[in-house]
């Protein structure tokens, strides 16, 4: 399982680096807009470069990283289904990664194994509450961090657009000059930002919908005394929730690691409190119904 976590983390890191390379190029070209505002001779070259990168991003950027997103998602899916004891959904996921693929990718991991332990905030819950509790963390934590990241990206885009308008006013530029010298060179950056924001919102919507359903079903199950007759239905729901997680992971990379680590301790404390609440609910529930 640690080997799987190493492989998963290494693959996610590769996907994030590919995604970050698009960000770096877009930001670099957007930065040249500052040059074109004050150096009119550079305006044509900067505009052409910005237009070219916007076209390249719009046409082929997604396909460059799609393979890496999918591989990282399948490795994480392999870890989850083995840990949760869920069946592999070949219709959605295709074939499971082989032992050789897992081993090869795990060797690329350069971090400490200690940081991979305690991947989930797991308590001594009965089956299937333990599985559902982990999925609640995946759904809730993912939605929270992606909402935060999406708002950060949207704020950055808004500030960049305001900066362009302000420089245009201060430099007494016409509307066409502002568009050509500021917004066209920044077009790749703006497209990337809007695409990032929309993708985060899409993931949030899907995960929160699954989270609300799973939370209601789990609480109802516990309050009824966790009857054995209800366990198969919850395990079916668990597999469906896992499909939602897998499909969103295959389409989009994780948020940058630095952003995730920035809020990791406070987010983990909040989800630990949620597990405390679930533990209390189990402790005060009626005796299990056979």
TrEMBL record:
<feature type="transmembrane region" description="Helical">
    <location>
        <begin position="25"/>
        <end position="58"/>
    </location>
</feature>
<protein>
    <recommendedName>
        <fullName>TIGR04222 domain-containing membrane protein</fullName>
    </recommendedName>
</protein>
<dbReference type="InterPro" id="IPR049920">
    <property type="entry name" value="IK1_05631-like"/>
</dbReference>
<dbReference type="Pfam" id="PF18159">
    <property type="entry name" value="S_4TM"/>
</dbReference>
<keyword id="KW-0472">Membrane</keyword>
<keyword id="KW-0812">Transmembrane</keyword>
<keyword id="KW-1133">Transmembrane helix</keyword>
<feature type="transmembrane region" description="Helical">
    <location>
        <begin position="149"/>
        <end position="167"/>
    </location>
</feature>
């Amino acid at each position: 399982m640690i080997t799987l976590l190493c492989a998963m983390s290494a693959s996610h890191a590769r996907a994030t680096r590919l995604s970050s390379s698009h960000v770096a190029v877009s930001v670099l070209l957007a930065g040249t807009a500052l040059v074109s505002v004050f150096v009119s001779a550079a305006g044509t070259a900067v505009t052409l470069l910005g237009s070219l990168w916007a076209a390249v991003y719009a046409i082929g950027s997604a396909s460059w990283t799609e393979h890496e997103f999918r591989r990282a998602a399948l490795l994480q899916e392999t870890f989850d289904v083995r840990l949760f004891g869920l069946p592999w959904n070949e219709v959605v996921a295709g074939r499971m990664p082989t032992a050789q693929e897992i081993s090869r990718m795990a060797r690329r991991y350069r971090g400490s194994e200690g940081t991979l332990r305690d991947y989930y905030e797991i308590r001594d819950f009965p089956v299937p509450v333990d599985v559902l509790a982990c999925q609640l963390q995946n759904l809730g934590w993912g939605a929270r961090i992606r909402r935060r990241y999406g708002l950060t990206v949207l704020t950055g885009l808004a500030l960049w657009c305001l900066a362009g308008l302000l420089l245009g006013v201060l430099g007494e530029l016409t509307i066409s000059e502002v568009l050509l010298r500021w917004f066209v060179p920044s077009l790749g950056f703006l497209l990337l930002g809007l695409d990032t924001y929309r993708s985060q919102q899409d993931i949030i919507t899907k995960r929160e919908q699954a989270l609300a359903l799973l939370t209601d079903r789990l609480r109802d199950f516990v309050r009824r005394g966790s009857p054995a007759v209800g366990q198969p239905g919850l395990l079916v729901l668990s597999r469906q929730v896992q499909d939602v997680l897998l499909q969103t992971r295959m389409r989009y990379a994780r948020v940058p690691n630095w952003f995730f680590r920035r809020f990791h301790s406070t987010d983990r404390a909040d989800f630990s409190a949620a597990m405390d609440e679930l533990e209390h609910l189990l402790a005060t529930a009626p005796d299990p119904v056979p």
